[in-house]
Amino acid sequence: MQTLCNQSFLSPSKFFIVVCAFRMELDLEKLVESGKLSAKGAEQLEKLKPGTFCLHKSWGFGRVTEWNLLLNQIVIDFAGKKSHPMQIQYAADNLTPLAVEHFLARKANDLLSIKKLAGEDPVAVVRNILDSLGGQATVGQISGWEPTKKSLRASGAFSVAAKKTEPIELRREGVSHTDELVAAFNKARQPKEQIAALEQIIKSHQQFKDPEKQLQPIVAPIENAAARNQKMHPELAFELIIARDDLLERVSQLHTTHIGLTLSKLILDEEKRLMLILPKLPAAKEKRVLQALPTVLGPRWTERALQLMQGSHARMIAQIARVFSEVGQDAEVKAMLERSIREHSATSEMLVWLCNERERWRALINPELLGAILAALEREQHNVTGRSSRLHRALVEDRQLVGDMFANGDIGVARDTMRRLQVSPLFDELTKRSLLARIVKVYPELESMITGAEI
Known about the structure:
Helix 4 packs across helix 5. The protein contains 24 helices and eight strands. The protein is flat and about 100 Å long. By secondary structure, it is an alpha+beta fold. Strand 7 and strand 8 form a beta hairpin. The protein starts with 13 loop residues before the first helix and ends with a helix.
């Protein structure tokens, strides 16, 4: 049996710890009596004895390693500040003691056990983190978040927000994730909120054990909101109906309550306003509407789609061209582009798209295209202020574009184009010389036009 005389700090007995603790308390009392430490500070230091973990607002997590009350100091090991001394009153005012069950303390004491638990029961680890942080934490505070998200939602003990910027919260009472989703939809008052809640329901539709009972009641509010918003906010009506269709497609037990309120009917009703509506839709839903045009509009869909393509919405131009390709009608797009280039009526966004997609539309990449670009730049010269337009940047920054246009052109056309560039107010002198040099690279015999020997 060990005796008191051979005890040390490395192998303390219970008696030794009690004696040390008693002496610490006496020393704290003396410091309070001498005015070097407040009574409240002494109470706080009681929780910051050697071996205790703590937090500092600037230096973060640390461990108290030593008290040196003769110097009125305690010593803490922080991650970036080992053996850092602090005056006792400052320490009492600025350190937050951590309980042994705090996640950071558990991690520091037994990292292997925490790693094992994270593999076996990640929900328990997240619960411990939230308990340690006052019941809520952000996604950034929880590593390995994505694989755990579904388990947290399914447990019903956590409130998991759709946005990563919103906190995860620990509930006092468990609520099923599906009930939470329906409650979020019912709580939503604005169409955008309803759409967001509905999309979460669609993502988790397989979790609903009795979908007809749980989800059929929300179909009517979806359709009512769509009908109510069609006149003033048709884009919201489109979003709601597309989302409703997605829900009904995934959950076969559900049915519409508003016969006739379909995507096809919306397209027909709002055909003349599609130019304004489509840019306001998310890309995936815009694509759904465009893909429906051939079926809904019949033979006149090409005319309407080409009209939409001549708008100023870059994303829609690419989407419509893709739809034409899917139905094997690239020729209609090509004819429209040729006419627009020839008549100098092509919009800036159309021209940017064409330049970016020129590998596919090689026949249209010719000197005429540069003429159409210059005409478009002249039109928008008074509309774009402060910085160059997308079309301007596409022409100037794509150093292969001009060369591609003149690769199979006529030298006479090239000469005329160079003269037009030389007098154009669209570019500064340095940019002009750069563009001219790109033409000269194709036709070296025109170099004299830059040097001034030919006019």
